[in-house]
């Protein structure tokens, strides 16, 4: 007897928006200035931490890495605010790297199917876990 299909309901995701009743021009200027400075921190963090040299870096160590070339004082930012921004970037990079690793593993299994290629797949996945490996040469 065929297995019945499961019906999945789509979950609605909503974001609460709180209107701002009023904001003085000086507060608006300060807010936009801080946003711009945090944008600089974010882009510099992506450039530094997103390179292959920092593959699989622990996000907890990311702030000290970025602070080695950009201090919060240089942008007149609170240290905690800069730290939160760098941590957010590092976590996003870690998630992107995990997704890339999963995609490469899928390609390995697609390229080397079957029981006869089990040893080859295991070796390639082991290489994938090592740092600073060029993966593309194994897939194409």
Keywords:
140 residues, mainly alpha, flat
Give the termini separation.
43 Å
Domains, number = 1
Q: Mean pLDDT, rounded to whole units?
A: 84
Oligomer: single chain
Quick synopsis:
The chain is 57% helix and 0% strand. The chain has five helices and no strands.
Q: Could you describe the 3D structure shown?
A:
This protein is mostly helical and 140 residues long. It has one domain (26-139). It contains five helices and no strands. The chain has helices at 25-49, 62-67, 79-111, 118-129, 136-139. The radius of gyration is 22 Å and the shape is flat. 11% of the residues are buried. Mean pLDDT is 84; it is low at 132-140.
Write the layout of secondary structure elements.
Elements: H1 25-49, H2 62-67, H3 79-111, H4 118-129, H5 136-139
Helix pairs in contact: 1-3, 3-4
């Amino acid at each position: 007897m065929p297995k019945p299909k499961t019906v999945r309901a789509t979950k609605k995701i909503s974001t609460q928006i709180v209107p701002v009743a009023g904001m003085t021009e000086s507060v608006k200027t300060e807010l936009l200035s801080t946003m711009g400075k945090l944008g600089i921190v974010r882009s510099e963090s992506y450039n530094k931490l997103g390179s292959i040299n920092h593959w699989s870096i622990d996000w907890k160590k990311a702030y000290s890495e970025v602070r080695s070339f950009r201090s919060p004082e240089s942008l007149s930012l609170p240290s905690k605010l800069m730290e939160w921004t760098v941590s957010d970037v590092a976590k996003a990079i870690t998630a992107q790297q995990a997704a890339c690793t999963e995609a490469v593993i899928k390609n390995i299994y697609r390229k080397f199917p079957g029981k006869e290629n089990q040893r080859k797949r295991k070796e390639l996945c082991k290489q994938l876990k090592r740092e600073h490996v060029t993966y593309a040469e194994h897939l194409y």
